[in-house]
Amino acid sequence: MDSIDIVGIGNALVDQEFEVTDQFLSQHNIEKGMMTLIEDAEQEKLIAELAKRGELKKQSGGGSAANSLVGFSQFGGKAFYCCKVADDQAGQFYCEDLENVGITTNTGNQKHEGKTGRCLVMITPDAERTMRTYLGITADLSIAELDEEAIARAEYLYIEGYLVTSPIAREAITRAKEVARANGTKIAMTCSDPAMVKYFRDGIDEILAGGVDVMFCNQEEARILTGTDDVQAALQQLQRHAKLVAITLGKDGALLGDGTRQVAVPGIPVKAVDTNGAGDMFAGAMMFGLVRNYPLSACGLLASHAAASVVSSFGPRLSLDQQQQLLIKLQHEPEFS
Protein backbone atom coordinates (compact mmCIF):
# COMPACT_ATOMS: atom_id res chain seq x y z
CA MET A 1 0.00 0.00 0.00
CA ASP A 2 1.17 3.52 -0.77
CA SER A 3 1.81 5.68 2.27
CA ILE A 4 -0.50 8.59 3.07
CA ASP A 5 0.75 11.73 4.79
CA ILE A 6 -2.61 13.39 5.29
CA VAL A 7 -6.31 12.56 4.93
CA GLY A 8 -8.59 15.55 4.59
CA ILE A 9 -12.33 15.69 5.20
CA GLY A 10 -14.22 18.65 3.79
CA ASN A 11 -16.65 20.17 1.33
CA ALA A 12 -16.39 19.55 -2.41
CA LEU A 13 -17.19 22.81 -4.19
CA VAL A 14 -16.51 24.27 -7.61
CA ASP A 15 -15.34 27.88 -7.15
CA GLN A 16 -16.37 30.63 -9.56
CA GLU A 17 -14.66 34.01 -9.10
CA PHE A 18 -15.97 37.42 -10.12
CA GLU A 19 -14.67 40.96 -9.54
CA VAL A 20 -17.21 43.25 -7.86
CA THR A 21 -17.40 46.65 -6.17
CA ASP A 22 -18.26 47.38 -2.55
CA GLN A 23 -21.37 49.07 -3.92
CA PHE A 24 -22.49 45.79 -5.52
CA LEU A 25 -22.21 44.01 -2.16
CA SER A 26 -24.18 46.76 -0.43
CA GLN A 27 -26.90 46.77 -3.12
CA HIS A 28 -27.42 43.04 -2.65
CA ASN A 29 -27.17 43.10 1.17
CA ILE A 30 -24.08 40.88 1.10
CA GLU A 31 -21.89 40.91 4.23
CA LYS A 32 -18.34 41.62 3.08
CA GLY A 33 -15.54 39.20 3.95
CA MET A 34 -17.85 36.40 5.07
CA MET A 35 -18.98 33.06 3.68
CA THR A 36 -22.77 32.74 3.70
CA LEU A 37 -24.79 29.64 2.78
CA ILE A 38 -27.60 30.18 0.27
CA GLU A 39 -30.06 28.04 -1.70
CA ASP A 40 -29.63 27.04 -5.33
CA ALA A 41 -32.27 29.45 -6.72
CA GLU A 42 -30.72 32.42 -4.91
CA GLN A 43 -27.27 31.50 -6.19
CA GLU A 44 -28.52 31.18 -9.78
CA LYS A 45 -30.08 34.65 -9.50
CA LEU A 46 -26.82 36.08 -8.18
CA ILE A 47 -24.84 34.42 -10.98
CA ALA A 48 -27.15 36.11 -13.50
CA GLU A 49 -26.49 39.48 -11.86
CA LEU A 50 -22.74 38.91 -11.83
CA ALA A 51 -22.75 37.82 -15.47
CA LYS A 52 -24.23 41.19 -16.44
CA ARG A 53 -21.31 42.97 -14.81
CA GLY A 54 -18.35 41.11 -16.24
CA GLU A 55 -16.62 37.89 -17.10
CA LEU A 56 -15.96 34.92 -14.90
CA LYS A 57 -12.35 35.45 -13.77
CA LYS A 58 -11.60 31.89 -12.77
CA GLN A 59 -13.22 28.51 -12.20
CA SER A 60 -11.51 25.79 -10.19
CA GLY A 61 -12.13 22.99 -7.77
CA GLY A 62 -12.50 24.43 -4.30
CA GLY A 63 -13.38 23.78 -0.71
CA SER A 64 -11.10 24.91 2.10
CA ALA A 65 -9.54 21.56 2.96
CA ALA A 66 -9.25 20.57 -0.71
CA ASN A 67 -7.35 23.78 -1.47
CA SER A 68 -4.98 23.03 1.40
CA LEU A 69 -4.42 19.48 0.17
CA VAL A 70 -3.68 20.71 -3.37
CA GLY A 71 -0.98 22.99 -1.95
CA PHE A 72 0.32 20.15 0.21
CA SER A 73 0.37 17.70 -2.71
CA GLN A 74 2.10 20.05 -5.14
CA PHE A 75 4.95 20.54 -2.68
CA GLY A 76 5.40 16.76 -2.76
CA GLY A 77 3.12 15.35 -0.07
CA LYS A 78 0.79 12.34 -0.38
CA ALA A 79 -2.84 13.29 0.25
CA PHE A 80 -6.24 11.58 0.33
CA TYR A 81 -9.55 13.49 0.35
CA CYS A 82 -12.91 12.35 1.75
CA CYS A 83 -15.75 14.32 0.16
CA LYS A 84 -19.11 14.00 -1.62
CA VAL A 85 -19.97 15.00 -5.20
CA ALA A 86 -22.96 14.40 -7.46
CA ASP A 87 -22.95 12.42 -10.67
CA ASP A 88 -22.93 15.59 -12.79
CA GLN A 89 -20.53 17.62 -14.92
CA ALA A 90 -19.34 19.71 -11.97
CA GLY A 91 -18.68 16.58 -9.92
CA GLN A 92 -16.64 15.04 -12.71
CA PHE A 93 -14.69 18.29 -13.13
CA TYR A 94 -14.02 18.39 -9.40
CA CYS A 95 -12.69 14.83 -9.13
CA GLU A 96 -10.49 15.16 -12.21
CA ASP A 97 -9.15 18.46 -10.86
CA LEU A 98 -7.90 16.72 -7.68
CA GLU A 99 -6.63 13.63 -9.47
CA ASN A 100 -4.58 15.83 -11.83
CA VAL A 101 -2.49 17.03 -8.87
CA GLY A 102 -2.05 13.54 -7.43
CA ILE A 103 -4.72 13.56 -4.72
CA THR A 104 -6.54 10.26 -4.18
CA THR A 105 -10.24 10.53 -3.27
CA ASN A 106 -13.07 8.36 -2.02
CA THR A 107 -15.25 9.32 -5.01
CA GLY A 108 -14.40 6.48 -7.42
CA ASN A 109 -17.68 4.60 -6.93
CA GLN A 110 -19.91 7.57 -6.12
CA LYS A 111 -22.99 7.91 -8.37
CA HIS A 112 -25.12 10.26 -6.27
CA GLU A 113 -28.12 12.07 -7.69
CA GLY A 114 -28.32 15.79 -6.97
CA LYS A 115 -26.07 18.75 -7.63
CA THR A 116 -22.40 19.27 -6.82
CA GLY A 117 -21.82 22.28 -4.59
CA ARG A 118 -20.71 25.64 -5.94
CA CYS A 119 -19.12 28.67 -4.31
CA LEU A 120 -19.42 32.17 -5.79
CA VAL A 121 -16.34 34.15 -4.79
CA MET A 122 -16.68 37.91 -5.16
CA ILE A 123 -13.44 39.91 -5.08
CA THR A 124 -13.53 43.63 -4.24
CA PRO A 125 -10.78 46.09 -5.30
CA ASP A 126 -9.09 45.75 -1.87
CA ALA A 127 -8.59 42.02 -2.68
CA GLU A 128 -11.05 40.89 0.02
CA ARG A 129 -13.06 37.77 -0.80
CA THR A 130 -16.75 37.42 -0.01
CA MET A 131 -18.49 34.10 -0.66
CA ARG A 132 -22.00 32.88 -1.33
CA THR A 133 -22.12 29.09 -1.23
CA TYR A 134 -24.71 26.55 -2.30
CA LEU A 135 -23.49 23.31 -0.74
CA GLY A 136 -25.55 20.99 -2.90
CA ILE A 137 -24.82 17.34 -2.21
CA THR A 138 -21.75 18.10 -0.07
CA ALA A 139 -24.23 19.16 2.65
CA ASP A 140 -24.98 15.43 2.98
CA LEU A 141 -21.38 14.39 3.63
CA SER A 142 -21.58 11.70 6.29
CA ILE A 143 -19.79 8.81 7.94
CA ALA A 144 -20.39 6.87 4.70
CA GLU A 145 -17.87 9.12 2.90
CA LEU A 146 -15.06 8.34 5.36
CA ASP A 147 -12.28 5.99 4.31
CA GLU A 148 -11.41 4.73 7.78
CA GLU A 149 -8.56 2.54 6.49
CA ALA A 150 -6.91 5.61 4.92
CA ILE A 151 -7.35 7.64 8.14
CA ALA A 152 -5.85 4.79 10.18
CA ARG A 153 -2.62 4.70 8.17
CA ALA A 154 -2.17 8.45 7.64
CA GLU A 155 0.16 10.63 9.67
CA TYR A 156 -2.50 13.38 9.93
CA LEU A 157 -6.26 13.79 9.72
CA TYR A 158 -7.13 17.31 8.50
CA ILE A 159 -10.62 18.64 9.34
CA GLU A 160 -12.30 21.57 7.59
CA GLY A 161 -14.20 23.98 9.83
CA TYR A 162 -16.89 24.67 7.25
CA LEU A 163 -18.32 21.20 7.92
CA VAL A 164 -19.77 22.33 11.26
CA THR A 165 -22.85 23.75 9.50
CA SER A 166 -24.11 20.18 8.95
CA PRO A 167 -25.20 17.87 11.80
CA ILE A 168 -24.39 14.70 9.82
CA ALA A 169 -20.98 16.07 8.83
CA ARG A 170 -20.31 16.74 12.50
CA GLU A 171 -21.07 13.07 13.20
CA ALA A 172 -18.54 12.18 10.50
CA ILE A 173 -15.94 14.43 12.13
CA THR A 174 -16.50 12.74 15.49
CA ARG A 175 -16.09 9.29 13.92
CA ALA A 176 -13.00 10.35 11.96
CA LYS A 177 -11.40 11.63 15.17
CA GLU A 178 -12.17 8.32 16.92
CA VAL A 179 -10.48 6.36 14.14
CA ALA A 180 -7.51 8.72 14.15
CA ARG A 181 -6.98 8.49 17.90
CA ALA A 182 -7.33 4.71 17.90
CA ASN A 183 -4.57 4.42 15.31
CA GLY A 184 -2.11 7.11 16.38
CA THR A 185 -3.05 9.49 13.54
CA LYS A 186 -2.50 13.11 14.53
CA ILE A 187 -5.38 15.57 14.14
CA ALA A 188 -5.20 19.00 12.49
CA MET A 189 -8.11 21.42 12.00
CA THR A 190 -8.84 24.78 10.45
CA CYS A 191 -11.58 27.17 11.56
CA SER A 192 -12.04 28.10 7.86
CA ASP A 193 -14.02 31.34 8.27
CA PRO A 194 -15.02 33.83 11.03
CA ALA A 195 -18.67 33.01 10.33
CA MET A 196 -18.09 29.41 11.47
CA VAL A 197 -16.70 30.58 14.79
CA LYS A 198 -19.35 33.29 15.20
CA TYR A 199 -22.48 31.31 14.27
CA PHE A 200 -21.46 27.65 14.79
CA ARG A 201 -19.24 27.91 17.85
CA ASP A 202 -20.56 24.67 19.34
CA GLY A 203 -19.43 22.82 16.21
CA ILE A 204 -15.92 24.29 16.40
CA ASP A 205 -15.81 23.32 20.08
CA GLU A 206 -16.79 19.76 19.08
CA ILE A 207 -13.81 19.52 16.73
CA LEU A 208 -11.50 20.80 19.46
CA ALA A 209 -12.97 18.49 22.12
CA GLY A 210 -10.28 16.26 23.56
CA GLY A 211 -7.60 18.44 21.99
CA VAL A 212 -6.01 18.46 18.55
CA ASP A 213 -2.41 18.42 17.41
CA VAL A 214 -2.51 21.38 15.02
CA MET A 215 -4.96 24.30 14.79
CA PHE A 216 -5.16 26.98 12.10
CA CYS A 217 -7.15 30.21 12.44
CA ASN A 218 -6.89 33.84 11.39
CA GLN A 219 -6.75 36.81 13.73
CA GLU A 220 -10.50 37.48 13.63
CA GLU A 221 -11.33 33.84 14.36
CA ALA A 222 -8.84 33.85 17.25
CA ARG A 223 -10.43 37.04 18.62
CA ILE A 224 -13.95 35.55 18.52
CA LEU A 225 -12.78 32.28 20.10
CA THR A 226 -10.85 33.89 22.94
CA GLY A 227 -12.48 37.29 23.41
CA THR A 228 -9.16 39.14 23.24
CA ASP A 229 -7.57 41.41 20.61
CA ASP A 230 -4.09 40.55 21.96
CA VAL A 231 -2.85 37.94 19.51
CA GLN A 232 -0.21 36.56 21.87
CA ALA A 233 -2.76 36.17 24.65
CA ALA A 234 -5.13 34.51 22.18
CA LEU A 235 -2.38 32.10 21.14
CA GLN A 236 -1.78 31.09 24.76
CA GLN A 237 -5.50 30.46 25.30
CA LEU A 238 -5.82 28.38 22.14
CA GLN A 239 -2.89 26.22 23.17
CA ARG A 240 -5.18 24.72 25.80
CA HIS A 241 -6.89 22.98 22.87
CA ALA A 242 -4.01 22.39 20.43
CA LYS A 243 -0.38 21.38 20.76
CA LEU A 244 0.54 23.66 17.85
CA VAL A 245 -1.42 26.81 16.99
CA ALA A 246 -0.96 28.96 13.88
CA ILE A 247 -2.71 32.35 13.79
CA THR A 248 -2.45 34.05 10.42
CA LEU A 249 -2.24 37.85 10.43
CA GLY A 250 -2.82 38.78 6.81
CA LYS A 251 -0.07 40.99 5.38
CA ASP A 252 1.68 40.89 8.77
CA GLY A 253 2.50 37.18 8.53
CA ALA A 254 1.57 34.78 11.31
CA LEU A 255 2.22 33.83 14.92
CA LEU A 256 2.99 30.19 15.73
CA GLY A 257 3.21 28.51 19.12
CA ASP A 258 3.91 24.90 20.13
CA GLY A 259 3.81 25.24 23.91
CA THR A 260 7.54 25.75 24.30
CA ARG A 261 8.08 28.78 22.08
CA GLN A 262 6.41 31.34 19.87
CA VAL A 263 7.58 32.05 16.33
CA ALA A 264 6.70 35.35 14.65
CA VAL A 265 6.53 34.67 10.91
CA PRO A 266 7.12 37.81 8.82
CA GLY A 267 4.66 38.85 6.14
CA ILE A 268 5.87 38.91 2.54
CA PRO A 269 5.26 42.28 0.80
CA VAL A 270 3.17 41.74 -2.36
CA LYS A 271 0.43 43.53 -4.27
CA ALA A 272 -2.67 41.58 -3.28
CA VAL A 273 -5.38 41.13 -5.91
CA ASP A 274 -7.35 38.22 -4.42
CA THR A 275 -7.14 36.89 -0.86
CA ASN A 276 -9.28 33.82 -1.65
CA GLY A 277 -7.36 30.69 -0.64
CA ALA A 278 -4.55 32.45 1.23
CA GLY A 279 -5.32 30.78 4.54
CA ASP A 280 -5.85 27.43 2.84
CA MET A 281 -2.46 27.62 1.14
CA PHE A 282 -0.80 28.70 4.39
CA ALA A 283 -2.19 25.59 6.09
CA GLY A 284 -1.26 23.25 3.23
CA ALA A 285 2.30 24.54 3.04
CA MET A 286 2.77 24.41 6.79
CA MET A 287 1.41 20.87 6.98
CA PHE A 288 3.94 19.86 4.31
CA GLY A 289 6.72 21.33 6.44
CA LEU A 290 5.45 19.45 9.49
CA VAL A 291 5.36 16.04 7.78
CA ARG A 292 8.85 16.69 6.42
CA ASN A 293 10.03 17.58 9.95
CA TYR A 294 11.15 21.10 9.01
CA PRO A 295 11.98 23.42 11.92
CA LEU A 296 8.90 25.40 13.00
CA SER A 297 10.38 28.66 11.67
CA ALA A 298 10.94 27.01 8.26
CA CYS A 299 7.34 25.70 8.22
CA GLY A 300 6.13 29.24 8.85
CA LEU A 301 8.42 30.79 6.25
CA LEU A 302 7.27 28.38 3.54
CA ALA A 303 3.62 28.92 4.47
CA SER A 304 3.96 32.71 4.47
CA HIS A 305 5.66 32.81 1.06
CA ALA A 306 3.14 30.39 -0.44
CA ALA A 307 0.17 32.40 0.87
CA ALA A 308 1.70 35.63 -0.44
CA SER A 309 2.06 34.07 -3.88
CA VAL A 310 -1.61 33.03 -3.85
CA VAL A 311 -2.91 36.54 -3.12
CA SER A 312 -0.84 37.93 -6.00
CA SER A 313 -3.15 36.37 -8.62
CA PHE A 314 -6.76 35.27 -9.04
CA GLY A 315 -7.77 31.89 -7.69
CA PRO A 316 -7.01 29.90 -4.52
CA ARG A 317 -4.17 27.81 -5.94
CA LEU A 318 -0.70 28.00 -7.49
CA SER A 319 0.71 25.93 -10.31
CA LEU A 320 2.93 22.93 -9.62
CA ASP A 321 5.91 24.78 -11.11
CA GLN A 322 5.32 27.86 -8.92
CA GLN A 323 5.30 25.73 -5.78
CA GLN A 324 8.35 23.68 -6.74
CA GLN A 325 10.34 26.82 -7.59
CA LEU A 326 9.35 28.39 -4.27
CA LEU A 327 10.49 25.31 -2.37
CA ILE A 328 13.85 25.27 -4.18
CA LYS A 329 14.39 28.96 -3.47
CA LEU A 330 13.55 28.81 0.22
CA GLN A 331 15.62 25.71 1.05
CA HIS A 332 18.70 27.93 0.93
CA GLU A 333 17.34 30.15 3.71
CA PRO A 334 18.89 29.84 7.20
CA GLU A 335 15.54 28.69 8.71
CA PHE A 336 15.85 25.44 6.76
CA SER A 337 19.30 24.54 8.05
UniProtKB/TrEMBL annotation:
Q: List, in alphabetical order, the Gene Ontology terms for molecular function in this entry.
A: kinase activity
Keywords from UniProt, A to Z, are:
Kinase, Transferase
Instruction: List residues of the Carbohydrate kinase PfkB domain.
Output: 41-321
The record's comment on protein family reads:
Belongs to the carbohydrate kinase PfkB family.
Q: What is this protein called?
A: Adenosine kinase
| Species this protein is from | Pseudidiomarina homiensis
